[in-house]
Amino acid sequence: MDQKDQEILEELMLNGKARISRISKKLALPMSTVHHRIMKMEQTGIIKRYSAVPDYRKVGLPVSAYLLINVEYAGKFSQEDVAREVRKLPNVLEVNIVSGDIDMIARVRGKDVEDLSKTVIERVRNIKGVAKTITSFVMKEIES
Hints:
The chain has a four-stranded antiparallel β-sheet. 37% of the residues lie in helices and 21% in strands. The protein has 144 residues and is an alpha+beta fold. The chain has helices spanning 3-14, 20-27, 31-43, 79-87, 113-123; strands at residues 63-71, 92-97, 104-110, 130-137.
């Protein structure tokens, strides 16, 4: 991947629906070159998928939180088993296994604090292997 591929990728990361003609014009590259490079990045797995990023307020999920989770290692479940179960829950956007005192961090959204509390208390804490949770509500989101 060279500098031009990186520039094309950055444009697509900002707007996955960006037209090849717009990228071509902005980067001063022929449209065929941009198209070829995008196809190559897709084929080699550099670009894994395209996705939509919703306005969570407009879809009824304005409240966001990070859920810090510790795993009970005395049980039969691995970190990855627990992480997969957490990720299956509605409104869980992302789960990452991390280093340090916390085993994993999940990003969750809900319609209000009560909705997120219900997710944590009734769903996450009932997953076998979850030992402890700490919830940090997002007070303000900074967008690019």
